Fold this sequence. Notes:
Blueprint: E1 6-19, E2 22-35, E3 39-43, H1 50-55, E4 65-74, E5 77-78, H2 85-89, E6 96-99, H3 103-106, H4 113-124, H5 129-142, H6 148-151, H7 161-173, E7 179-183, H8 191-208, E8 211-216, H9 219-225, E9 228-233, E10 236-242, H10 243-248, H11 253-260, E11 310-313, E12 316-318, H12 339-350
Parallel strand pairs: 3-8, 3-9, 6-7, 7-8
Antiparallel strand pairs: 1-2, 1-4, 4-5, 9-10, 10-12, 11-12
Helix pairs in contact: 4-5, 5-7, 7-8
Amino acid sequence: MEDRNVILSVKDLYVKFRVRGRELTAIRGISLDLYEHESVAIVGESGSGKSVFTKTFAGMLERNGYLAGGSIEFEGKDLTKIRRAKEWSQIRGSKIATVFQDPMTSLNPILTIGKQITSVILRHQNCSEGEARVRALAMMKKVGIPHAEARFDDYPFQYSGGMRQRIVIAIALSCQPKILICDEPTTALDVTIQAQILKLIKDLQKEFGYSIVFITHDLGVVANIADRVAVLYAGQIVELGTTEELFYDPRHPYTWALLSSLPQLAQRNAKLYSIAGTPPSLYSEITGDAFAPRNPYALKIDTLKEPPMFQITPTHFARTWLLDPRAPRVEKPEGIQNIHEKMMNSLHVSGGQVREN
């Protein structure tokens, strides 16, 4: 990664929320570099901080949330220092765009599709209404809307769920942003449409050259879209590596648990694996490893002291005391050993496809 340019750099970020007189620390010291033209997946259970983390890139935190520390460097500017809405409007949409989970919450039901795309173009681009229409139609065609001219003046309810999500992608890309944040954009769609939307996002990345931050709780999706994966737990990155490293050489017990939960690895007539227990409360200060109470491989030190981020390879890091040279040797669970072979067997049975690297 050293030969690629860093487009966005997060250093020691803390995000807190004021909730009914109490303070919740949602993001706890996250550092992450995003490179040009790459795809990074942010994975973890609900409540791990995935969406909160990426909302800080575009100044979209809820009113009761605030940045309590750290920096986010983008184009020579620290985004944590921005206070005025006008400054955010010059970044949000034009340079950093977001595709959300449910397209109907992103689209205005009483405006035509064409109007919604052209309004974004006119806001951020110096062009006439006629030029904006031409650009909007071109983008509709790029995202795969058939008969774009005839559908330009249709309303969102006249589009299917998959087509609405294509329109949301068209709006997000209409000003050719440098970073595209995809916040679980396929969760509300059926499996066949999911695959089409993922392929569309990747295909358009080759044309427009944007970097992707893809938020998901589904590790099965990660294999098809990401170059690197950051695993979040309780507001921290607990493992970071290339997709191949995370799938074939995972080192954190939480990553082991997430992989073990993949439906593709379930044995016939056997109960699907689930992670015991619940994440810790983020209202209180966490002592030691946040995952320790749910970790069957926890060491005594896990309850006393937070582990550092250990480097495994130049691109692979994990925050677990099991990587300390003094720790006992622990093998990853049998269920995720030979994971590639097991997933391939599952795909042969289901008739699916897997990305080959």
